[in-house]
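User: Round two. Same drill as before: sequence, then structure, for each protein.

Assistant: Same drill it is. First protein:
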Amino acid sequence: MNIARSLECHQARGLTALLLLGVSVFLTPLSALGDSGVLARIALSQKIRIAYPENSYPIAFKDEDGLPRGYSVDLCRRIVASIQRDLGLDGIAISWIEGNTPRRLAAVANGEAELDCGTTTMTLSRQQKVDFSYPIFVESGGILVLKNAGIGSLADLGGKAIGVIPETTTEHRLRPVLAERLINAELKPIKDAKDGREQLLAGAIDAFADDRLVLIGQVAASGKTNAYQVIDTDFSVDPYALALSRDDADFRLAVNRGLAQIYASEEIDRIFARWFGDDAQPTPLLDSIYFIFALQD
């Protein structure tokens, strides 16, 4: 059902946003439009706050003009457009909040942001504080090193310093793997992916651990592709999803409805090609996610 179209006759008579809430039966379940519901706040303010990482190219980053861009940013913009249509609004302004993963999750948990649009892995422990959308990506862990460092595997990192962003799934999953394999590497805190790459080049750390695609993006952004090497490892597999407020099923449904529509159309192919290259193809696992979650009403 095209909700925006069903309201055209009312909008033509100049109904205010408050009256729009009064006919919410056409838009979304009434429970979503309570005083504390995210959709109600968006309908009244015509604004949404989205957290994102500024240095996680090509998933999410800030470009030279200071604008958020990337794969997950494109998805979030289209989700906002879907919500705008379903609420019958003329527009929804996006306020972007920058931060690494712990900062973004905290922003969503404390109500500072309605949505986290980045490289956040969906985990059970994180679901104690925030909710999650359908998966948007699947990634594995990797290690970035300098090509001439003589490091070819995790085993070569004994006695070395590995940079990690604190309180991330990378840190939580890498630490026990190192202990289990008796690799006495030191985990050193870094601010974000860009900081890890810069500290590695400066010699402050011997390696930098993060999601593999983020590492590849940092190599591309450095302009020194011959200086680095990404070591594929098996210490983690990370399903990315969009973090959002807990206990708001109607907002989660609105987000997932937008994702389902994207996955069911050719738009997901265009977004993927834009950020990973015209010749790139989703992995079979990611392709399955697109297929499974392209749900229809």
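Second protein:
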Amino acid sequence: MATFYKPNAGFKRDLLKPGDIFINTSTFKPAHCGIVVDGLDIIHATGKGIVSTDIDLWGNEAEVFRPAPVLSKDEAGQVTNIAVEIKASATYGITRAGIKSTFSTHNVGGGTRARLEKYRERLKNDQGVVKHVYCSELVILCYQLAWIAGDAVNQGHRLFINLDGKHTWPSTLRRYLKGNNNWAFLGEYAA
């Protein structure tokens, strides 16, 4: 696999862009993910909480995915602002990570739409988007909530990740991104 970015090895940090998705490949595959935000930090949900880590300190090999075509500055701002808001309001959802993602379907259904409408209202009213979240759910929510049209969730937008984040493992997200023409697989971030 081609190395897209290797910290402190002469690769330029500006190859990475806000909105890029990292999916860890160094433990049981793939086990963790996060989203790049302004300042080239990665926001991700861990057992220690929702944290922001400098890109050069990510510490795990990861595959890097980017929307195609590349997000505009406004689109990247929408996605990363949601990540920042989730970080400010949520805690790590161990039950979601261990049970709900394992024993439920990742297909979008009525429950997904209802949750997204609730989160949309919270986002609009600055109430804290979600209370509990795990890594792939955080990434998926950033891309789902960024494409809110008027008073409804816009599932038809090319970058709306059509998965139920509450029930999706990083491996399922990885398969989804690899099989979707609206996403480019850039290569590996090599720790």
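The first helix runs from residue 73 to 89.

User: Perfect.
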